[in-house]
Fold:
Amino acid sequence: MSFNMSDSKVKLLIAGIICGLVGVCLAFFGNPGNMAICIACFIRDTAGSMGLHAAAPVQYFRPEIVGMVCGSFLIALATKEYKVTAGSSPMIRFLLGIMIVIGALVFLGCPLRMVIRMAAGDLNAWIALIGFVLGVATGTLALKNGYTLGRAYETNATGGLVLPIFMVVALILAFTTALFHFTEAGGGPGALHAPVAIALIGGLVFGVFAQRSRMCFAGSVRDIIMLKDFSLITIIGGFFVVMLIYNIATGNFHLSTAGQPVSHQQWLWNILGMYVVGFAAVLAGGCPLRQLIMAGQGSLDAAITVIGMFFGAALCHNFGFASSGDMKDAATGEVTLGGTGPNGRIATIVCIILLFIIAFVGNKRKEEKAE
Amino acid sequence: MMTVDARGLSCPEPLMMTQAAVKKADGPVTVLVDSVIPRDNILKFVKKKKKNAEVTEENGVFTIVIS
Structure:
């Protein structure tokens, strides 16, 4: 089966538009404000649902995550791209997964949500974009300097089934038993969600097109900086335009820093949070979305990064690394400003130091020799 | 002939190694990759550089000879 969405800019644009339409659908059917589909937020909610953290406002088992992994898994099987590999510095990738989520939850969103927030006129996200681009540029510099996590090797095919099967079983248990935790109605972003079937189908479609188009937020910026190649950014462009039209049409577009849903206005920490995400994502070979997709198509190294993201999400809420969003009291109209706490700031700085060590000390590629 | 073994490496490393090798080598360059993504990226680069590439596949390993 040949179903290549990555060999022309038009196809890439179409993939971006389809993924944008999925985002519009999910937003329309009830996902939280400017959070139509956010990998970091949804991993955080799912981790909470499984009891890995106890932050009651953000506990919901997000079927979108299951859909994306399984969508990628199924389309990779159908196109014979499914291949189980492992062995490329798994523990470093685990650490990078943790750091990606810490950075994302300091900013309040993964690169995908950053673009969604940008399309809703949230200037905090536009400010954070500076940090993201600088982070990707730093990672790219490391790559040019010979940074590598080493080779992955083909391994037992059964290993690749673990994550998709685990996710499907957890999804079934989440909605048929009382084992999982769910935010009560009105209790926070976790209470806002599209119906399960729509979320799952949306995730599957998104997963299929993301796999075929190689959609990656970090990769798009990296390709521009490193190779002057604008192919991958075409997808993001399509996605952005669809979300922008939706927001303008529904009156959801407000050009401001204040009053944006689930966001804070501390520009420095928005920049540094996304700096960590961009830097760590390039070192890990892809943004949070791409990690889910690669895990689905058999990369056990990416699966370890995904598990790192779950672990990181739990750390963020158990140890107060995650920022809080600005809150408006519905009765009095009084606004309480959100932002990072001291622990979140320390965690961000520690992540930046660790990333520099991973990127520039050790992890060097060996020179190829002429034969 | 220069050989670049980029098997098991994730993007963009195979492409970077290929670029460096093509720049350095006098004659043809052979690149080994084991996934379609780096293969397509390298072929795109070869086309851009107006060079020729021959691809053969054996057991999931693509051998690209750039001349």
Remarks:
- The first strand of chain A starts at residue 85 and ends at 86.
- Chain A touches chain B through 27 residues (CB under 8 Å).
